[in-house]
Design a protein that fits this description.
The protein has two domains: about 10-165, UbiA prenyltransferase (Tetracycline Repressor, domain 2, Orthogonal Bundle); about 170-305. About 75% of the residues lie in helices and about 0% in strands. It is built from 15 helices and no strands. By secondary structure, it is mainly α. Pathway: Porphyrin-containing compound metabolism; heme O biosynthesis; heme O from protoheme: step 1/1. Pfam families: UbiA (PF01040). This is Protoheme IX farnesyltransferase.
């Protein structure tokens, strides 16, 4: 377990520090994909219930972020890109982060059960547990497959959104899950290629650290190939259509092409141009997921109209 006591002698925290604990950038992805899952579901919900459901899913995502930062305070203090976070920088104590995470978990799960249904609430509780315990406390520090298996936590929100409306799961919600699940490894491994030293210093067994960059490059390309069929299959279900399929086809061709370019590059070439291709593919991966879910929204709106 992380030694968070080293960060407990802190000045009084400001409101923005507690917001930062919720990982708002990650939460925005949770909110968006959960909303899309709810939006395209075949069972309509009252707009107020939609707002409340997405709000409580967002609070659940924020709770996961706070619990993650509480446990990972020792790692965050070592890595350049995370040492400015509220706990390692001394603005928030570990106890405050833990209390916030547990409190928001209870509020989010209970209120989602009262707002939508208890199946969705249970799903949200499991997702928080999976991210905070299975991924953060176990997988992240134990196996180079941490991102692969742990990526499920970030892939559950559209299924939770779908469950809020329907009370269950379906092929459509599973494929939305698969889209995020298989997108996660190439997305994070592209980042790890030019951030390897951070993970090495922190002792995190990212694939780049345990198996090297050459193996990581091959894995990135392999996952782009695995991802594409699931992305296109989603377009053939009741939530898909020609608009979504056109967007998915273009994005997956570009993503596979980027993975191929990464795989073919030598480390010497990458160092010489400061990992320009890897950075470009990482940026593409951000647009990739957003545009897929945006296309689902547009396809649903056009179909309803």
């Amino acid at each position: 377990m992380s030694d968070t006591h080293a960060y407990d002698h802190t000045p009084e925290a400001e409101f923005g520090d507690f917001v930062a604990l919720l990982k708002p950038r990650v939460m925005s992805l949770v909110v968006f994909t959960a909303f899309v899952g709810l939006w395209v579901a075949p069972v309509p919900m009252h707009p107020f219930l939609v707002f409340c459901s997405v709000l409580f899913i967002a609070l659940g995502g924020g709770a996961s972020g706070a619990l993650n930062m509480w446990y990972d305070a020792d790692i965050d203090a070592v890595m350049n890109r995370t040492r400015g976070r509220p706990i390692p920088s001394g603005r928030v104590t570990g106890g405050e982060a833990l209390g916030l995470g547990l409190g928001l978990t209870v509020i989010a799960v209970m209120m989602l059960g009262l707002t939508a249904n208890w199946f969705a609430a249970g799903f949200l509780a499991f997702t928080i547990f999976f991210y905070a315990v299975i991924y953060t406390m176990w997988l992240k520090r134990w196996t180079p497959q941490n991102i692969v298996i742990g990526g499920a936590a970030g892939a559950f929100p559209p299924m939770i959104g779908w469950a809020c409306a329907t009370g269950g799961i379906s092929v459509e919600s599973f494929l939305m899950f698969a889209l995020i699940f298989f997108w996660t490894p190439p997305h994070f491994w592209a980042l790890a290629l030019f951030m390897k030293e951070d993970y090495h210093k922190a002792g995190v067994p990212m694939l780049t650290v345990t198996h090297g960059r050459a193996v990581t490059r091959r894995h990135i390309f392999g996952y782009t190939l695995v991802l594409a069929p699931f992305a296109l299959w989603l377009g053939l279900t009741s939530v898909g259509g020609p608009i979504y399929l056109a967007v998915a086809l273009v994005l997956n061709v570009l993503f596979i092409r980027g993975g191929w370019q990464i795989m073919r590059r030598s480390e010497e070439t990458a160092i010489a141009d400061n990992y320009a291709v890897e950075r470009r593919v990482f940026k593409l991966s951000l647009y990739y997921l957003f545009l897929h879910f945006l296309a689902l929204m547009v396809q649903h709106w056009v179909g309803a109209w």
